[in-house]
Amino acid sequence: MTKRRLPALSPSETEILRLVWLLDKATVQNVCDKLPAGRKISYATVQTLLRRLEKKGYLKHHIRGKAHVFSAAVKREAVIKRSVGDFLDRLFGGDPVPLMQYLAEHGKIDADDIERLKRLTDKK
Amino acid sequence: MTKRRLPALSPSETEILRLVWLLDKATVQNVCDKLPAGRKISYATVQTLLRRLEKKGYLKHHIRGKAHVFSAAVKREAVIKRSVGDFLDRLFGGDPVPLMQYLAEHGKIDADDIERLKRLTDKK
DNA sequence: CAGTATATCGTACATTTGTACAAGCTGTCA
DNA sequence: TGACAGCTTGTACAAATGTACGATATACTG
User: Fold this and answer.
1) What is the DSSP string of B40-77?
2) Is the CB of A10 under 7 A from strand D?
3) Which of A17, A38, A57, B83 is deepest in the core (most CB within 10 A)?
4) CATH of B76-123 among 1.10.3470, 1.10.10, 3.30.70, 1.10.4040
5) What is the pLDDT of residues A75-102, one digit of tens each?
6) Closest Cα partner for B13 from B37, B38, B1, B31?
7) With an 8 Å Cβ cutoff, is B109 touching chain A?
């Protein structure tokens, strides 16, 4: 099994990668259209980011007409796992509990979220 | 109230900042000593990172003997809040539930934790 | 007081990141 | 078929990042 370590994701790359995941398959234009309203960033920049994501191994593409259609080259799960892991290490020394507490105490998650979550984990 | 927006933290800076928080007050040497075993990074590099953290406004220092003693210049809480917020935005579009879910599914957090969490948020 | 161990300071430098323009292809529609 | 809208490619470039050396300053120790 080739569990090779892809080059790290930069913040902006992560932001773009998330949108590709969301769209499943996406052209540069598609990604641009999905950018949050306030995000002022040019088509060309999105394109560069997608190019880099592909070079780094996170995306692949096929051609449709004259456009590139990008899609995930590695499982989202795996990327999330690593990103969260790295983040946890850096900010909390790897201990997830403080993060959870933070989320709870700062209203990032509310009672409803907990309910949903409870259902999710119970089901497992 | 001066809620100014400090320059973003880089991953390595975050890593070092966490150690200063942990130590409360720390010299370059102290930080080096707290680095996890595998982390190969020179004294000089740690020093640069601390310098940058101070320039960015996250740390301040006073002198003790010939050494600088660094400590937090802004509340850890505030930094955490922003870091987690940014991270959540980039990777999950701001929705914390998938993150919690990830934590849950990887055995980092179990049903009991969620129960406690529920109580925590209910009480608020 | 002079030497030594320990600090900081100034600086450097290759990469990565964020951002984007300009030039050159290529479907498509009139 | 020829022009045009829409894409990609090549390239650029300043700023941030990760990493660290060499020179200089300074507190202790004998």
Assistant:
1) ---HHHHHHHHHHHHHHTSEEEEEETTEEEEEESS-HH
2) no
3) A17
4) 1.10.4040
5) 999 999 999 999 999 999 998 888 888 8
6) B31
7) yes
- The answer to whether B44 and B52 are in contact (CB under 8 A) is no
Question: B-chain residues within 8 Å CB-CB of A113?
Answer: 96-97, 100
Q: Is the pLDDT of residue B17 over 60?
A: yes
Task: Say if the Cβ atoms of B104 and A96 lie within 8 Å.
Answer: no
Check residue B123 and give its pLDDT.
58
Query: Across residues B21-26, what is the average pLDDT?
Result: 98
Distance in angstroms, CA of A65 to C1' of C29?
Answer: 15
Q: CB of A86 within 8 A of CB of B79?
A: no
Kindly list the domain boundaries of chain A, sorted by start residue.
Answer: 11-72, 76-123
Q: What is the CA radius of gyration of chain A?
A: 17
Among chain B residues 42-61, those with CB within 7 Å of any atom of strand D: 42, 44-45, 47-49
The ipTM (two decimal places) reads 0.91
Q: What is the tens place of the pLDDT at every residue in B64-76?
A: 999 999 999 999 9
Structure tokens that stand for A57 in this block: 């191994």
Complete DSSP assignment for B79-92: HHHHHHHHHHHHHH
Taking contacts as CB-CB distances below 8 angstroms, the residues of chain B near A124 are: 105
Grade residue A59 by pLDDT with cuts at 50, 70 and 90: very high
Q: B90 touching A, CB under 8 A?
A: yes
Chain D positions within 7 A of any protein Cβ atom are 6-12, 16-22, 25-28
Q: Does A2 touch chain B (CB under 8 A)?
A: no
